[in-house]
Each structure stands twice: as C-alpha cells, then as structure tokens.
Design goal:
Layout lengths: L17 H6 L20 H7 L4 H5 L2 H15 L4 E2 L6 H5 L4 E4 L3 E4 L6 H5 L10 H14 L4 E6 L1 H10 L7 H9 L1 H25 L3 E5 L8 H17 L8 E4 L7 H5 L5 E3 L6 H8 L4 E6 L8 H15 L5 E5 L9 H20 L1
The structure holds coproporphyrinogen I (1CP).
C-alpha cells in the first residue's frame, strides 16, 4: 500500500479493504484472496532468510517477522498479510518447554498428562511476547492499506500438541485424556483458552485488522464430542473478542460435519477445507457468516488449466455465501511453484471484478 509512505493514511485504510469488507459481508471491488502458510517454504526468499535461523528464533526477531510477513504480499499481491509466527509461540511464552524441529513440527519436552502439568501453563500478556507486539506495530506501518491478520491456535489443536508431545495422526493420547479425565481436560483447555485470548488481544492492541483461530485438528472429533469438549473453549476465545472490533475467522480441516457447530463459536467467517463445496458449507453455517476457502492445496501442483477451472468453480460456489474470502482449504505445500500462487491471485481478482461490473 502507498498510504504509509507519506505518513498520511487514506480514509478507509485496511478497515475498508476488500478483505475486511468480505469478512463483514459487505460488497467490494473483487473477491479478496490470501493463502494459509503463504509466508512459508514455497518462497526462495524465505528459505534464504531461514537458512541459518531456527524457526522459534525467527518468530522472536521482529525484523525477521516483518520481512517474512511482507514477502508474499510483495510477490503475489495478496489482499491480506498473515503474521509470521507459529501456534506454539504463545504456549512457549506461557512457560512450556518446546521446540519446532525441522521436518517434524512442534515437539514438547515434557508432555502434559496431569493436573500439575496444567499449572505449568502461566497466564501471558504483552511483556511475555514483546517481539509480537513490535512486529505487528512495524508491519501495520509498512502494509498501509493492506490488512494484517493475527492468529492463534485453538485450545483443542494446542492441547493435542501438548498432550501428544508432538504431531499426531490419531490424537490418541489427547482423546484418552479427554474421555478418561474430563475434569483435567476442561482445566487444560480453559487454561489454553486464556493464553490464546490474551495472545490475540496483544495482536489486536498492536493493530492487526482481523484474527484467525486455527483449530486445524478439530476434524478428528464427532460433532457431539466437539460440542461437549471443545466448543465451550473456542467460544470463550472468539466470543471473548466480540468487543474488539476486528473480524474473527475460525478454521479447521476435515470439519464438514462440524461447520454448523464451529459457526456457533462466535466467528464472523468460517474457514472451509476442499472436501465441502462452499455452497453446501454456506447452507450448514447459515446466512450470517462469511466463508473462507477452499482450493485443495494439491491442485496447485496440477497443470494450469486444471487450476484455473477449480478457481472458477470455487468463485462460482462462493457466490452462494454472503461473503467470500478466497483461500486454500489448508496451507500451501512446500513444493508449490510460487508463480502459480501469483497467477491464482490475478485470476481471482480478474474473474470476480468482471462479475461485479456486469
Ligand atoms: O504464512 C504463514 O501462514 C506462515 C506462518 C505460520 C502459521 C500461520 C506458521 C509458520 N505456522 C502457522 C500455524 C500453524 N502451525 C498451524 C495452524 C495452521 C495449519 O493447520 O497449518 C499448525 C497446526 C502449526 C503446527 C506446525 N508448526 C506444524 C505442523 C506439524 C503437524 O502437526 O503436522 C509445523 C511443521 C510447524 C512448523 C512451522 N510453522 C511455520 C513454519 C514456516 C514451519 C516450518 C518450520 C521449519 O520446519 O523450519
């Protein structure tokens, strides 16, 4: 954006951007588009910066966070930036000893299994994550009219990493705790909801224009179990931000059966993966929420005509929703050709703005 360059933001600014308008179910000049994990390993300029800096350290250096967050905005012309960080950053700030191991993901030194372990998760505030506060403030200036999305992991997804000790396909230990000791489960998720809420408030006070709550692994649960064990805690986070004045996005993977329930947690926008067409998703979520999604990230590895047809299909199905933010159904795969992402942004803008002219 040009607004920040002369130090005189235009009226409107990020709050009037196509992305925020779509989140609020207001018409705009085109369908906005950004990509989950857009700042990741698909970009050579990212790999260069990260070559000598461990993941968690890069999240704690505001100048690196700022540069990495801006890279996909410059390159692709996406309608929103997402803060470069990770869902385990606030948990580490809350006192849990963990690391992000290349090729694996988050690994927790002493997994949480008992009440005394839950006590190890301390409340956090701005002074526990000063690098996030600083990076957001710097980014808001650099980005001008382009909105910055803050984010956090939802209690269930965070709990899974903490209880398993690392990434898990089955979430078996997590479910064993959930079913076997519901009291401890709710104590753990209650504590994580407090940390998450505080972490999102820090980002909002520093100036992010929207927040996304990632419950990436919620799709591992039935609707009944989701409602009993997870929804109250995600609701505490999202509804706890109802006075914050920024749109809230709630996202999970494999959540076809949970879309209605996830929509009840208090978000303005519900993220949808590629398994559920957006018109069907809209029917499940209801008319008072926008949707975000839902190109299969693997489609980006296909020949361009396939990508183009899928983008057009998703834009057409997204018209059933009262607001549509174009995105992938999950994060960018590392082997994705970044030029394809740039072409997708241009195509989404072109197709959706031509439609608006008619
Ligand atoms: O542009 C961006 O979005 C980059 C910022 C970002 C975000 C939003 C990163 C950097 N991580 C996340 C969120 C995140 N982290 C989620 C929610 C989104 C999702 O579902 O993908 C989750 C589940 C994690 C956990 C995580 N961190 C994993 C997944 C492991 C698993 O369980 O399968 C991994 C591999 C990481 C490490 C990580 N986080 C981010 C990056 C660039 C990396 C790779 C770092 C490295 O290996 O050096």
């Amino acid at each position: 954006g040009t607004a920040a360059r002369d130090g005189h933001p235009r009226p409107g600014g990020p709050a009037d951007s196509p992305f925020i308008r779509a989140c609020r179910r207001r018409p705009g000049p085109h369908t906005p588009v950004w990509f989950m994990r857009q700042a990741g390993r698909s970009l050579p300029e990212y790999r260069e910066i990260r070559a000598s800096v461990p993941m968690l350290e890069s999240c704690r250096r505001p100048e690196l966070v700022t540069e990495i967050t801006l890279q996909p905005v410059r390159r692709h012309g996406v309608d929103a930036a997402i803060l470069f960080s990770d869902i385990v950053v606030p948990v580490a700030a809350a006192g849990i000893d963990l690391d992000i191991v290349p090729g694996t993901g988050p690994v927790v030194a002493e997994p949480i299994r008992a009440a005394a372990d839950v006590e190890r998760i301390r409340p956090i505030g701005r002074d526990d994550v000063p690098y996030v506060d600083e990076a957001v403030r710097q980014l808001v200036v650099e980005l001008g009219d382009t909105p910055l999305i803050g984010f956090a992991g939802a209690p269930f997804t965070l709990a899974s990493y903490l209880v398993e000790g690392g990434p898990s396909r089955t979430h078996a230990k997590t479910k064993a705790l959930m079913y076997g000791d519901p009291e401890l489960w709710h104590a753990l998720c209650g504590r994580l909801a407090e940390v998450t809420l505080a972490f999102l408030r820090v980002q909002i006070e520093a100036g992010v224009s929207a927040v996304q709550l990632f419950d990436s692994w919620a799709g591992a649960l039935s609707e009944a179990d989701y409602r009993r064990y997870v929804l109250p805690h995600s609701t505490a986070v999202l509804s706890g931000l109802s006075d914050a004045g920024v749109p809230r996005i709630h996202f999970g993977v494999g959540t076809a059966e949970l879309l209605g329930a996830m929509g009840e947690a208090g978000a303005d926008v519900v993220g949808v993966d590629w398994r559920t067409p957006l018109d069907v998703a809209t029917h499940r979520i209801g008319p008072d929420k926008a949707v975000q999604g839902n190109l299969d990230p693997a489609v980006l590895l296909a020949p361009w005509p396939v990508v183009e047809a899928e983008v057009r299909r998703i834009l057409a199905q997204g018209r059933a929703a009262p607001g549509h933010v174009f995105n992938l159904g999950h994060g960018v795969l590392p082997e994705t050709d970044p030029d394809v992402l740039t072409r997708v942004v241009a195509l989404v803008h072109e197709v959706s703005s031509r439609r608006a002219d008619q």
